[in-house]
Write a structure and sequence with these properties.
single chain; mainly beta; 5-stranded mixed β-sheet
C-alpha cells in the first residue's frame, strides 16, 4: 500500500525468481518468473493459479494485454510468447503445458495438492492484521507503530543451556569411550527399542561406518563398515529398516537399505554428490537429493522418479531433508541460514523460511510432527528450534567460544528427538589443539513456550517540562506506567545508561529525577521498564535507512545472482546497505534491512531485521521477536540489548562479556509530543 507503506500481500516465488513482474489491469492477478516458467498469481490469496511452460532460457520481461485476457513473455531463447489467461480467479494450481523435461513430466502427472485443516499456508490460518498508527518523521518518512490494548499474551524468555552445564549428558566421547571414531553426520533414536543409530566418517577415505548403541552409550555395534562418507541416516520404525546415503565429491554415491540384523541392499547407485534423505513411511517412499535433483523412490528400490531438476542451481545441495506427514510436504536445508518447504506434489514451489541469522549454516534437521516444531543445529554452535514458518526461534543449547578446560566444544552435524523420553540428542566435536574428539550428547527437551496474559508495555506521551537540568524533576504521562520497575536515561553523547530515581504519581504518571549526564548530552533517550515490557522515547528525527544493496568489497567481485559464495549458503535473500549511525542517532530498522557499524546510537530493530554493531562507543538496541542481533569480538565499549523472547542472538554475542542482554516480554517505542532536552547550567 503506497499510502501507508504496509505490505498487502506476498507471493513466495522461490529460488531462481527472475527480475520480471507484471500486474493485471484489474489488479487481481500478477505474473512472475521461476527459472524459465511464467507463473500466474491470485493477489487476493497469494496462491499460484497457473504455470506457463515453453521457454528454454531466462525470461526477461512480462506484460498483460489491456483486456487482461492475454499474457506475454520475452526470453533469451529469442522468442516472445503469448499465453491465454484463464478467467477464473480461484482454482487449483496446474501445469499449463507439459514439456519434455523429466521433472516437469513428473509434476504434471501428480494430483493437485489440496489444503488441509491446520495447514499454516491455508487462508483460514492467516494471522489477524495488526493495528498500527502512523508517525511522520522530520524528513517526511512515515513509519508504522503498533497499537496495543490493555493486555496481551506474552511469552517468557528462557536462556540457552550452556554445553558445559550438568544438564547436558555426554552419551559418547571418542577420547573417553573410543566411540564415535569419526565425526558424526547423522543420528536417529529408536526410543521403543532403546537404540541410538548414527553414521560416522569423512568424505576422503573408506573408513565410514553405520553404528548403533544403547541410549546410555553402552553395547556399541557396527552395522556397516568400510564406507565412503555414509550420511543422512533414516530409521523406518514401521518396517524395522535403516536407509542411508554414501558418497561425496566426484566418487559415485549410492542409496543403501539394511534390516536391523544387518542384511543390506543397494536401492540406487551412481549418484552424483548425494545430499539429504527423507522417508514417507505411510506410502513406503524415500526422497533423496543429489546434485540439483530431487528424486523419489520406493523403499524396495522400485519406481525411481525425478521430481525436480534445476540445472542452474549447481551449488544447491539439500544436506538435510525431513517429511512433514501432516501437510504432505518436505522440509530441507541447503546449508544456508534458512530452510525451505517443498510441496510433495509440486516440488518446484519452494517456500523459503526467513534466514535464521546472517552467515549461519544449518546442519541437521529434526521435525516434531505433533507440535509442528523444527529443530536444527547451525554453524554458530547453537541448537535451536522454531515454528514451521521460521518464527519463534529459541536457542536451546549454546557453546561458548572458549571453555575453562582449554577445549573447544562445538555443536555440529546432526539432531535427533526422543519425545517419549523427553530428550534431544545432537552431535559435536571437542577439540584441544589439533586433536579432535567426536561426541554425542543429549539434554532434556525444553517445554514448549506458553503465553500468559500481561499488561501492555508502557508508552510515554508527554514529558513536562520538556527541558530540565540534573537534579530537577520531570513528569512522564502516558499508558501502562503503573508498576514501573526501572527508569534510565541514555546519554546521547556517550551512549551510557544512567539510572534515575522515580516515584508514581496520580493517574498513572511518573515523577522522575533527572540524573547527572555528560556535559555534551543534549537529547537523552528515556527508557522505562514495567512488568509488561519496555519503552524508549524516540524523536521525529529518527533515521530510517534506505533499501540499498549491501556492499561486498571484502569478497572481491562476485556475481551473487549467478554464484553466491559458499559462506552465504545458497538461495541467499537480498541483503542491504550497512547503516553507519553517528553519535546520538536514533535508527528505525525496518523488516528486511541489515544494519552494521552502529556506534553510540539507539536502534529499534523490527521483526525480520538484522543488526550489528561497530567498535567505538556504547550502543543500545531494542530488538523485536524474529529480528537478529550479532556482536563481533572487537568491541572496546559496552553494548546493551533489550530483546523480546524470540530475538535471534548469535552464540558468540551471547557469551561476549561486553554485551548486556536484558530480556523483556515486549517492546513499544514512544514518540512524546516534544523531545526531552537536557539542560547544562
Amino acid at each position: 500500500d503506497v499510502k501507508t507503506g504496509r505490505e498487502r500481500v506476498r507471493c513466495d516465488v522461490g529460488a531462481d525468481a527472475g527480475w520480471a513482474v507484471a500486474i493485471s489491469p484489474d489488479g487481481r492477478g500478477a505474473l512472475s518468473v521461476h527459472d524459465s516458467d511464467v507463473i500466474l498469481w491470485n493477489l487476493a490469496s497469494a496462491q499460484e493459479l497457473h504455470r506457463f511452460q515453453g521457454h528454454s532460457n531466462q525470461i526477461m520481461a512480462l506484460a498483460f494485454a489491456p483486456d487482461g485476457r492475454t499474457a506475454l513473455s520475452s526470453s533469451q531463447d529469442g522468442s516472445i510468447r503469448l499465453w491465454g489467461v484463464p478467467p477464473e480467479t480461484e482454482r487449483t494450481p496446474v501445469v499449463a503445458q507439459r514439456g519434455e523435461h523429466p521433472a516437469r513430466e513428473a509434476v504434471a502427472q501428480e494430483k493437485p495438492r489440496q489444503a488441509k485443516v491446520g495447514d499454516p499456508e491455508s487462508p483460514e490460518h492467516a494471522p489477524e492484521p495488526t493495528k498500527f498508527e502512523t508517525v511522520k518523521l522530520d524528513d517526511g518518512t512515515e513509519i508504522q507503530v503498533e497499537k496495543w490494548g490493555k493486555t496481551y499474551p506474552a511469552y517468557d524468555y528462557h536462556p540457552p543451556v550452556d554445553i558445559l552445564d550438568r544438564r547436558v549428558h555426554v552419551v559418547l566421547d571418542c577420547q573417553r569411550d573410543g566411540e564415535p571414531r569419526n565425526p558424526v553426520s547423522s543420528l536417529e533414536v529408536d526410543s521403543k527399542g532403546g537404540w541410538l543409530y548414527w553414521c560416522d566418517g569423512t568424505s576422503n577415505y573408506l573408513g565410514g561406518r553405520v553404528m548403533r548403541a544403547h541410549l546410555d552409550g553402552g553395547g556399541v555395534q557396527a552395522l556397516a563398515t568400510g564406507r565412503l562418507y555414509p550420511h543422512s541416516l533414516v530409521l523406518d520404525r514401521r518396517r524395522g529398516r535403516l536407509y542411508w546415503l554414501e558418497g561425496a565429491g566426484d566418487d559415485p554415491g549410492r542409496l543403501q537399505a539394511a534390516t536391523i540384523d544387518g542384511k543390506e541392499t543397494t536401492l540406487s547407485k551412481g549418484l552424483n554428490r548425494p545430499g539429504g534423505l527423507a522417508l514417507d513411511s505411510a506410502r513406503g517412499q524415500l526422497y533423496y537429493w543429489e546434485q540439483s535433483r530431487l528424486v523419489r523412490i520406493n523403499v524396495d528400490g522400485a519406481e525411481e522418479k525425478i521430481l525436480m531438476a534445476n540445472p542452474r542451481a549447481r551449488n544447491v545441495n539439500f544436506n538435510s531433508l525431513a517429511f512433514d506427514v501432516a501437510h504432505d510436504r518436505l522440509i530441507g536445508s541447503a546449508g544456508g541460514g534458512q530452510y525451505q518447504w517443498l510441496d510433495r506434489d509440486n516440488p518446484h514451489l519452494l517456500q523459503y523460511v526467513p534466514r535464521m541469522e546472517p552467515w549461519a549454516r544449518i546442519y541437521g534437521l529434526a521435525f516434531d510432527e505433533d507440535h509442528q516444531k523444527v529443530y536444527f543445529a547451525n554453524l554458530r554452535q547453537a541448537l535451536q528450534r522454531s515454528n514451521m514458518d521460521g518464527t519463534q526461534i529459541e536457542t536451546l543449547v549454546a557453546s561458548p567460544a572458549e571453555c575453562p578446560d582449554g577445549c573447544s566444544r562445538q555443536i555440529f552435524g546432526a539432531v535427533a528427538l526422543d519425545p517419549a523420553r523427553g530428550h534431544i540428542y545432537w552431535t559435536g566435536l571437542r577439540t584441544r589443539g589439533s586433536a579432535m574428539y567426536p561426541t554425542i550428547s543429549r539434554t532434556a527437551l525444553r517445554p514448549l513456550p506458553e503465553p500468559a496474559e500481561r499488561p501492555a508495555p508502557p508508552r510515554v506521551r508527554a514529558i513536562e517540562p520538556p527541558e530540565q537540568r540534573a537534579g530537577g524533576e520531570v513528569v512522564l504521562s502516558g499508558d501502562g506506567l503503573v508498576g514501573t520497575v526501572d527508569v534510565r536515561f541514555i546519554d546521547d553523547s556517550t551512549g551510557a545508561h544512567v539510572e534515575a530515581k522515580f516515584r508514581e504519581a496520580a493517574q498513572g504518571r511518573l515523577l522522575v529525577a533527572v540524573p547527572r549526564l555528560g556535559d555534551r548530552c543534549r537529547r537523552p533517550v528515556v527508557v522505562i521498564r514495567t512488568p509488561g515490557g519496555v519503552t524508549m522515547t524516540l524523536g521525529t528525527d529518527t533515521i530510517v535507512p534506505d533499501n540499498q544493496h549491501y556492499p561486498y568489497e571484502d569478497v572481491g567481485s562476485i556475481d551473487l545472482d549467478k554464484e553466491p559464495p559458499w559462506w552465504m549458503g545458497t538461495n541467499m535473500p537480498y541483503q542491504h546497505e550497512r547503516s553507519e549511525a553517528g553519535p546520538g542517532a536514533r535508527v528505525w530498522l525496518r523488516p528486511g534491512l541489515m544494519a552494521g557499524n552502529i556506534e553510540t546510537a539507539v536502534v529499534y530493530a523490527q521483526h525480520g531485521s538484522n543488526l550489528g554493531f561497530g567498535s567505538k562507543g556504547m550502543a543500545t538496541a531494542f530488538a523485536k521477536d524474529d529480528s537478529y542481533v550479532g556482536v563481533g569480538d572487537g568491541l572496546y565499549d559496552d553494548v546493551v540489548v533489550y530483546h523480546e523472547p524470540f530475538t535471534g542472538i548469535s552464540w558468540r554475542s551471547y557469551y561476549n562479556t561486553t554485551v548486556k542482554w536484558i530480556p523483556v516480554p515486549a517492546i513499544r517505542p514512544s514518540f512524546p509530543k516534544q523531545s526531552f532536552r537536557y539542560r547544562i547550567d
